[in-house]
Amino acid sequence: MDGRVLKLTGGGQNDLVKRIIEDFCPRFTPGGVLVYVGDTGNKQRHLEEGYLQRLGLTFDEHGKMPDVVVHFPENNWLFLIEAVPSHGPIGIKRHNELKDLFKVAKAGLIFVTVFLTRRAMTKYLSEIAWETEVWIAEAPSHIIHFNGERFLGPYE
Which fold would CATH assign to domain 18-146? Predict the structure, then answer.
């Protein structure tokens, strides 16, 4: 997002993480800062620790970080993104874990579950939490909003 090259371990979830960085972020967080990217092979691949600290956050190596964290400075939003091949969708339990993990953030939180295909999403459809977003890599220009009073914005 800032021109640096990020190398991920090949295969599995990281193929979807690559699509998040290359397709989702330019569309939905243009000018965003890639703050954290997990890597299934290395457990932690990219971390902007100083940037997290400016947002009021500290990084816990053993915490349950989402797969990708992007700060969108224009609106001061923090996108917490889960690639489904890893942990499953952002269901109510995961939603609460992430809200707790990022409760001191000086930015509004947006929760996004990412699937490779619509077919992959159908397996988890009943588990997706309300007040979250879903992005499907095979249809990159679209996003699905799971109810609530806002579309692609944080809830207080």
Answer: Trna Endonuclease; Chain: A, domain 1 (3.40.1350)
